[in-house]
Amino acid sequence: MVNLLTGEYRNTLDEKGRILFPSKLRSELSENSLVITQGIDRCLWLYTPDEWNAFSAKVMESASPFNEKNRNVIRRIIAPAQEVEFDKAGRLSIPQTLRDFALLSKECVILGNIKYFELWDAESYNNYLKESEASFRDAAEELSTITF
Predict the structure, then answer these.
(1) Which of 27, 78, 145, 147 shows the greatest Cβ crowding within 10 Å of its Cβ?
(2) What's the pLDDT at 4?
């Protein structure tokens, strides 16, 4: 299992829909590609192929095509997934349908979440942080059993 790094990185999406992936993160990857799919909150989720296989298998094992909510998750997360290889310059070409979903413009944010990455439009991410502040505080309070 790859131990992906965490961190927040800001990069620009070029006119061809490519984004330079941070070399610090890229150097930790054992493969030359990532699986990109729609995430929740209008961002994209990026997985190594191995992590994607594990994640998608868990989703599919617990989902029934006869359940409307399950079908909705499958259609929005599993179905749009595409594997994309890094080019020689370390860029990922984000498919147009996924760029449209995440409303990606020029300025983007890449977040390392240990097992996967998120790719956000920078303005959308800043708005999300502002709008979710109260629910974040409530969620953090629920973690009060964690001690140091």
Answers:
(1) 78
(2) 56
